[in-house]
Each structure stands twice: as C-alpha cells, then as structure tokens.
Design brief:
- By secondary structure, the chain is α+β, with helices and mostly antiparallel strands.
- It has a domain at about 5-300: Glycoside hydrolase, family 65, N-terminal domain (Beta-galactosidase, Chain A, domain 5, Distorted Sandwich).
- It has a nine-stranded antiparallel β-sheet with strand order 1-9-10-11-12-19-16-15-14.
- Strand 9 (about 105-115) and strand 10 (about 120-125) form a beta hairpin.
- The longest helix is centred in the middle third of the chain and has 22 residues, at about 445-465.
- The two termini are about 30 Å apart.
- The structure holds beta-D-glucopyranose.
- Beta-D-glucopyranose (BGC) binds near residues 341, 354, 593, 627 and 629.
C-alpha cells in the first residue's frame, strides 16, 4: 500500500447512535470469528447496544410460522448465533472505576489500522478524584490463528501510584439482536444457546454451550497475561467466568494486560473444548509481538495483490482501503462458510449468505486472490445436494436450485416472491465458476468442484423454462430488483441463463479431455442430448427488447405499469419496503436496485452500446437505490458509457456508504457487497477492465479531480500492476509470464512494462 491505511475517529462520540455505529465500523474479524467493537468497560445500560460476536457459519435453527401455510413454504430457518461475550474488562484505580461516562475524557481516538490488522482505542482520562491515566487498547482477530481474539490493554498512570485492578469477564448470557420493525433483522429476541459447562482452568475460564435446536457446540476459553508482579483470582458462577487481576501502579510506568479469548465450534473441531484449551496454550506460547508480526505479514501479502491507491482524493482513497479491508475480514476461508452481506460485523440478514458473494465480492477475489475464490466455490459444491433437494421441493424434476438465503445450504427465505423466486442465484453461482475459469484457466479445479454445480444449475433453466413460438421463456421468477416480483422473462435472469447455458456447453467440451469427467457425467446422468438442449435454449433465449424506447424492458409486463415519481416520495418513506405494502410497490415501475443495468455490466456483449445507454438513462430515473447493491453498478455503467460526472457521483456514495452511514443502517453491520462494488467500480468501471474468453482488456479513464490511481489484477499465472495518470497508463508485469493485453482496442504483449498514452475519449 502506498498511502495511509489508518482510519480514525477523533474524539469518540459517546451518544448511543455513535457507539452503536462504532460497534459495526470498528469490529474485528478474520473470516472465522467476528467481534463487534464494544467499550470493554461497558456503557450505561439504557444504551442497549448490540455487543455481539459470531463464528462464520455457526447457526441455530428456528421454526418459521406462516399464518397461511402452502406447500413447500420454508418451515425452519437458520440463524447465526451470538456467542460468548469476552469483551468485558473493568479497570479500577483504587476505589474508582474507569468509565468514559464519568470523570473527564481529556483525549480519545479510535482507529483501525488496515496494514497491521488491529483496532486501537487511545484515551486520556481524569477520574473524579483527579487521577489521570492514558489508555491504549489494541484489539485483534488473528488471521494467523483463526479462533483467537486478543485485547491488549495498556494503562499508564500519569499522576499517581497505588493499587490498580482489572475485572475481566467471560459472559455467555448473550442474545441475538432483533428489531421487529425491520425485516432485514431478526424479529424476535433470542437466546439461542444453553450452557453445558463452565470451569475455572489453570489460568483462565472455559465455557461450553450448545445451540438449542441445531445441536452444535461452541467452546470459549479466556486467559490473561498481566506483566509484572500481581495477584489473580479466577471464578466461575452461573456459567459466567470472571478474573480479578490486582497489581500496584507506579506513576509513569505502563501496566499491560493481555486478554486472550478463543472460540472453537463443533462444525470444525471434533472436540471443541479440548481444541479451545489448546488454542489458548498456542497463543500464550508466543509473544504478542510475534502475533502482531504474523498479522501484519498476512495483510502485507493480501495488500500486495489487491491494494488500490487513489491520488488526489485522500478521503476516497482511505474509504476504498477500508472497504477492501472489510472484505478480507468477512470472507469465510473453509467449506462451512461463505460471505454474508454484513460479513461478521452484525446480525443483519441473520448471517445468511446470498448471491452477494458471487456477484459482488467473488469477482474481486477471483482477480486478486483466486485461492479464496476456490474456497467459495467449494462451499457451493458442498451444499449442492441441498440445492437439488430444494429444486425437487419446488417441483423440478431435475437440477439444483440454490437457496436465496442460507447458512448450510437449505432455503431460509420465508417470503418466496422476493426470496426463493430469485432463480438468478443459480446464474450467479455459475457466473462465479466461469469467471474463475476465465481468470485462472484452472480446468482441474473446475472439474473437481465446479462442473457438477455448473451442469446441475444449468439443468434447472431447462426445467423451469419452455419454448414458446420458437423462443425460450423463463416465467414466474424474480430478478435482482425486489420491488418487482414474480414476473415473466426478467431480462437479467434470461440473459444470465443464456450465458450460463452457453458456458455449460463450452465447458462440457473443454472438460471432455479429462478421464474423470466421465465419472461426473455418469454420476449426474448428463447426456449429449441434454447438452444439445442447453445449446438450443441458449440460442433461442428470449431477451425482451422495446423498439420504441430502444431499451431492454426489465420483464414482460414492466413497461405496462404506472410510474411513480421518486422525487415526490417524502424522504422519510425510504426505503420503500418499510413503508408501503409489497403489492403497491410491485404495481409500479420502480426499482430497488440495478437489475437490467447489472445485466448490461456483466453481459455487455448481448446488447449494443446504444441500448445500454438508453436502458441506463431509463432505469436511472426509476431506481431508488434502497439496496446498497445498486450505486456501484450504476457507477460502473456510467463510467463505461462515458458519463464521467455520474460515475464519480455514484462512486463517491458507494465508496463511503458505511463510513458515512449513508444507508442509515450500518449499525446492523457494514455492507460487504457494496464494498466489493468499490473495487469493481475502479477496475471494471474507471479502468474499463474486461475479463473475457478472448483475454483481458483495459480502457482507463481518469475521474475529474483525481491525479491518478493504481491497482493490481491477477490473471492466469501473472500479476499486473496498472497505473493510470493524466497522461498515461502504465502496465507492469509484476509476476508471471508475459501476457497479451488489449488497451483501448489495440493488442499488446506485456513483457515487462508497457506505457500507453491515456486516451481521454475512449
Ligand atoms: C437486496 C438483495 C441482497 C440482500 C442482501 C437486499 O436488500 O435487494 O439483492 O442480496 O439485500 O444484501
């Protein structure tokens, strides 16, 4: 990373909203565990914050009650579980206790250091009796040891000496967050675990508990190191551990307490309690400096492949770095987990995985860190059987239908018109496999984990659709725009299905050279005739087009509906889903998010530039962007269509969406898909990158006010650095063998460094 990678808030605001906001914004996560940022010493009870910590993919189930039940409705759903709260540390200075709400806060700042992988709170505080301390509290969710979370608590007594003690807690009594007024969060107050044991161990506490219905266990151990002479009393009562550590402070000499907390779950570990105890030992067998160094090294490698620098706009530069940092914090790195829309920063959307991962986040990993993309594909491969069962439940005779929202693979959406009916998720899963292939040419992996998924999902299009007057139609589905449900021939869905089917045919041929492909064909009974059908359906796929407007209508009936003037809707009525009945919304030409415009971004070769421009201008007027997944896509398409001003405006709002809480719900968790969108906008939008069968290409533009920007892409065995300035575009082969690249429509061989004059009208 070339520029600043520390995001800081100074001074800390202590109102309820701000603390709630920091919980999400400064959470620590490593793809396995996620801990929201709560003040260790606590806050006044009436603040009612959401101190939560999660394990990616660790869930319980809940019964879904439908007042009117119809066949196949979801009867049970999964929900991420809030696990033991290990954040509590109360600091006593003699008979006074530190609190930001008492005495005087003289200085305070909270930052996330994205190069070091830590959050740091620094406070200078004076107690009511005049004792002054400086605090530096460093928190880390380790990328090196995934179950480990540490709080490194340093206290400097500025003007006094005397007794100082820490009361550190290990609390299992946690509940899931809920808000009955917002369908994007859980609607009930839930405590999802029951305790199994709570013990005092050699130098800490250990708690194990079990989920109520899914019957999974999680063990959590806490231990401390207090440097220097001290006394320690450890106790456990009512399944709550507590450690009291007492020492003597000397004026000007820093006291340092490290709290180690580990979480191990029974999905990943056979003996999770034993493993948690081992993990504590492992963490304590090395120094904190060693753990910090490992953290930094991990991130160094991460940033080497994906850092983006923007010159000329420091705020945007930092916002994009913040977003990319959240992606590595969020992504699951094993077959049990994926990426949820809030990552591990909150229980908004109940920790479910959607299409967000495949369409918004995975494209980033595929061209910066393909190993992570592999693990995301492996997750879908693991859940293929459930996707087949889901398809059968809906009445399909063949194929797999991936669930709209899920943790382990079963459908968890309770409202099928805006859930299960979003068949385009199948296209998203296939798109991610095709993209992975295009970027890596790794056919072996496609064979191992991708092929079955790709063909089983392709089959579903045939079973869903039908030929009508020579065209292949897909009826009664919902596209990405959730303000228009259960329609015939959603353009996005049909276009993606066409692409999917075409690629199923191509990959069928390419995989034919592997002996093992025969086994897969036999296993899923895939015949040449079926492949023929794929070709025929793809070639005949109906893609709605309106001659008069020169646009692709979102679906067959979209243009017949009445319009709803967005400018006339009062500000407080957004997002519309919280204020209007779905039927009212569905009867209007109004979009929650990019739908046809998204299709044009990913599948530009299906339409002329003129159609895409007309569509962009048409849908722009009727899109509310109530979904955070929308603006980045409008920015990309505006950039591609040379609407520089619009591209920059949409990008600014998308890049800073969480830092400025522009969606108004960052407290439920940060918006991970949009964060992937920030990267896509710079690379696919501003730099005009394309990843296609014929190779990779660029057509960089420079947004007004920027002096330049820089990023990397991995392609096949190579890594290419791209630097764009006012005058030129510099491509540097940082790793790997020479590559053919196309820039502004001309072909070049990139062997070392290639400097090309920047074309201001691309
Ligand atoms: C969007 C979906 C998205 C979900 C989770 C909804 O608001 O409409 O497209 O998958 O959020 O991010």
């Amino acid at each position: 990373m070339k520029s600043n990678s520390v995001y800081t808030v100074e001074p800390l605001k202590l109102d309820r909203y701000s603390l709630n906001f920091y919980e999400a914004l400064f959470h620590n996560a490593n793809g396995y565990i996620g801990i929201r940022y709560d003040l260790e010493e606590g806050v006044p009870q009436e603040y009612n914050l959401i101190p939560s910590q999660y394990i990616n993919g660790f869930y319980d189930t809940l019964e879904v009650k439908h007042p009117e039940y119809l066949h196949g409705f979801t009867q049970e759903k999964e929900i991420i579980v809030n696990i033991a709260d290990n954040q509590g540390i109360k600091l006593y200075l003699g008979d006074e206790v530190f609190s930001m709400f008492k005495g005087t806060v003289l200085e305070s700042r909270l930052s996330v250091d994205m190069g070091r992988g830590v959050t740091i709170r620094e406070v200078k505080w004076q107690s009511e009796k005049g004792k002054i301390i400086r605090l530096k509290i460093t928190r880390m969710a380790s990328f090196y040891q995934l179950p480990l979370f540490t709080i490194d608590y340093e206290v400097e007594p500025v003007n006094f000496s005397g007794p100082v003690s820490f009361e550190s807690t290990h609390n299992r009594q946690v509940c899931n967050y809920h808000n009955p007024d917002d369908p994007r969060t859980a609607s009930e107050f839930l405590q999802l675990t029951t305790p199994l044991s709570c013990e005092v161990k050699e130098d800490g506490t250990s708690v194990e508990y079990r989920t109520k219905r899914s019957n999974l266990s999680v063990a959590s151990c806490v231990s401390h190191s207090l440097f220097g002479k001290h006394e320690e009393e450890i106790s456990a009562k009512d399944y709550q551990g507590s450690s009291l550590l007492k020492t003597e402070a000397k004026e000007g000499e820093t006291i340092r307490l490290v709290k180690y907390a580990v979480y191990c779950d029974s999905l990943r570990y056979k003996n999770c309690r034993g493993q948690a105890e081992e993990e504590i030992k492992k963490a304590k067998s090395v120094t904190m400096d060693f753990l910090y160094e490992r953290q930094e090294n991990y991130l160094k490698e991460y940033w080497e492949n994906c850092s983006v620098d923007i010159e000329g706009d420091d705020e945007l530069d930092l916002a994009v770095k913040y977003n990319l940092y959240q992606l590595i914090q969020a992504v699951g790195k094993d077959r049990h987990s994926n990426i949820s829309p809030k990552g591990l920063s909150g229980d908004g959307y109940e920790g479910h995985y959607f299409w967000d991962a495949e369409m918004y986040i995975q494209p980033f990993f595929t061209i910066t860190n393909p190993a992570i993309s592999k693990s995301l594909i492996a997750y879908r491969h693991t859940t293929l059987q459930m996707a087949k069962e889901n398809a059968a439940l809906v009445g399909h005779k063949k194929g797999a239908l991936y669930p709209w929202r899920t943790i382990t693979g079963r459908e968890c959406s309770g409202y099928f018109p805006a859930g299960r009916a979003q068949y385009h998720i199948n296209g998203a899963v296939a798109y991610s496999i095709i993209n992975y292939y295009l970027a890596t040419k790794d056919l072996e992996f496609v064979l191992e984990k991708g092929a079955e998924v790709l063909f089983e999902t392709a089959r579903l299009w045939l079973d869903t659709g039908n030929f009508h007057e020579g065209k292949f139609m897909l009826n009664t589905v919902t596209g990405p725009d959730e303000y228009t449900c259960l329609v015939n021939n959603n353009y996005y869905t049909n276009a993606l299905a066409k692409y999917h089917l075409e690629w199923a045919v191509k990959l069928y041929k390419k995989l034919g050279v592997y002996d093992d492909f025969i086994k897969i064909k036999e296993k899923i009974a895939l015949s040449e005739d079926e492949i023929e059908e794929f070709s025929r359906a793809a070639a005949c796929m109906y893609l709605p087009y309106d001659e008069k407007l020169g646009i692709n209508p979102q679906d067959d009936s979209f243009l017949q509906k009445k319009k709803w003037d967005i400018a006339k809707i009062p500000q407080e009525k957004f997002p519309l889903l919280l204020h209007y009945h779905p039927l009212h919304i569905y009867r209007h030409q109004i979009c929650k998010q990019a739908d046809t415009v998204l299709a044009h971004f990913i599948l530009e070769d299906m339409q002329s530039e003129e159609t895409m421009r007309n569509s962009f201008l048409y849908y722009e007027k009727i899109t509310t962007h109530d979904s955070s997944l929308s603006k980045a896509i409008f920015s990309i398409m505006a950039a591609r269509l040379n609407m520089e001003k619009k591209a920059s405006a949409y990008f600014g709002e998308s890049a800073k969406l969480d830092l400025l809480d522009l969606q108004g719900n960052t407290i439920d968790g940060v918006h991970i898909a949009n964060m992937g969108g920030s990267f896509l906008t710079i690379v696919y939008g501003f730099a005009g990158f394309r990843l296609k069968e014929e190779g990779i290409s660029f057509a960089p533009m420079l947004p007004k006010g920027w002096q330049g920007y820089r990023f990397e892409v991995c392609y096949e065995d190579s890594r290419i650095q791209v630097q764009v300035t006012e005058q030129e575009c510099v491509f540097e082969l940082e790793k790997g063998t020479p590559k053919r690249i196309r820039v502004y429509g001309r072909d070049y061989l990139l062997e070392d460094v290639l400097v090309i004059e920047r074309n201001s009208s691309r």
